[in-house]
Amino acid sequence: MKKINTLIHYLDEHSKENTNYFTYASVINKIIDYLTEHKGDGFMLYNTDSERFADSSDVIQEILLRHPNDIEIIAHVYDSVGLSDLVMKERGKHTVRYSTLNNIFYFSQFEVALVTIPIYTFHHPYNENLLFAKSDDQILEFVSYFENMEKNYMLNGITIYTDTEDGLIRSKEKITHQIDREDVLLEESLKSDIFRSIDEFFLNSGQFFKQYNIPYKRGILLYGSPGNGKTTLVKSIAGSVSAPIVYWQITEYTSSYSIREIFSKVLRLAPMVLVIEDIDSMPTEARSVFLNTLDGATTKEGIFLIGTTNYPEKIDPALINRAGRFDRAYEIKQPDEVLRREYIVNKKGIGEFLTNSAIEELVQKTKGLSISQLNEIYMSIALESHYNNHVNIDKIINDLQENTRKAQKQDWISEPSTGRVGF
Questions:
Q1: Contact 272/306 with Cβ under 8 angstroms?
Q2: Is 75 in the same domain as 149?
Q3: Which residue, 42, 185, 43, is CA-closest to 114?
Q4: Is the same domain home to 209 and 143?
Q5: Where residue 197 sits, what CATH number does that domain have?
Q6: CA 400 – CA 373 distance, rounded (Å)
Q7: What is the edge-to-edge ordering of all strands in the sheet holding 158-164?
Q8: What is the pTM of this model?
């Protein structure tokens, strides 16, 4: 990495005179003075809402990687704050890259500087994004450019937000294997209905909705037993629309604040898809805020909302009994005989291990099982055939059903111990 100037040194005389090495006003003035000296007069600090550049780190790294001519690191702020990050690219492989903290990033085409600095308080340190520019027009052009870059970054995968004790945590899941729509095992009429509404929403920037004077927002709820393809359906949607996909994992830490934060983020990047997994787990104290947010006149504009649940009986009826929240609810059912045969024969290729008559027997005996359970049966058949050269279909199915029964009843111990417990 090339040598870059550092603005504030812990051991210099100026810093010693400060009561606080990290004095906020001193940092601002230092940055403006440096920008003036090296990039010309007229730089001003612009206030932005706290969430506008909260996820700037990922976007800056993307610009550094794919558009290096757009960005320049012109200085470091503190000499005692890390300048580089050690990150894991994949399992067992790491790389070192410039940190987005403590470095001043300059975008010469807009004459805009973006820097994230640590702010130290009596409670705990936090990071603040600072934006410097010479004019209002340039700052507006830059924000438009930055948000476009963020959208492009988000298209390459699924952006995941998880509510934690420390607030919303953002991560990204790359789509390493494209799931085609043909690979989604659902009733054809149901699948057609869902994908048709998705396509019309994003086709020609929602021209269908404008033509027929329909509010440009849509919400669907997917419900049904686990293991029957709700997640697969969502991943196939992610790979087949040219719009950002945000996956929001609500937890016991979901609050009114995180609800507003999520919708603020997604509305800024609309049109897009927002997936809310396990929506039934929304904390009781946050539900009224969530419902009111869905009712807002503009909070869903340009958003295709997909909610999923394995427990529809826990869903607040108010979610689907009022227009503007979830418009349609679709049951993802256990696979019928046709879908079971399609999965184990065409998708898994079980004919390698079983005769046609054995396959038909398997199709009939797996009634009521989910897609994920069919996958487990296929794995068991493949293992038994590989090691024993024969397959006991009845035993494999019975073992799986017994295991499922124990899991549902939490009844794992067949013969309780009567001995004394001790050391």
A1: no
A2: yes
A3: 43
A4: no
A5: 3.40.50.300
A6: 8
A7: 167-173, 158-164, 245-249, 272-277, 303-309, 218-223, 328-331
A8: 0.80
> Does residue 216 sit in the same domain as residue 289?
yes
pLDDT tens digits, 360-384: 999 998 888 888 899 999 999 999 8
- Confirm if 30 and 8 have CB atoms less than 8 A apart: yes
Residues 255-282 have a mean pLDDT of 89
- If one counts every other C-beta atom within 10 angstroms of the C-beta of residue 339, the result is 19
Phi-psi region of 416 (alpha: psi -120 to 50; beta: other; left: phi over 0): beta
Give, to the nearest 10 degrees, the angle between helix 371-388 and helix 393-409: 130
Residue 416 lies in a domain: no
What is the pLDDT averaged over residues 44-63?
82
Nearest to 305 by CA among 315, 320, 316: 320
Number of residues that make up the chain: 423
Cis peptide leading into residue 317 (ω within 30°): no
Residues 322 and 341 in one domain: no
Q: Does residue 168 lie in a domain region? A: no
Chosen domain end from 331, 350, 372: 331
> What is the domain range of residue 126?
6-155
Q: What is the dihedral of CA 288, 252, 120, 54, to 10 degrees?
A: -70
Number of domains in the chain: 3
78-119 residue pLDDT tens: 887 877 777 776 666 787 878 888 899 999 999 999 999 887
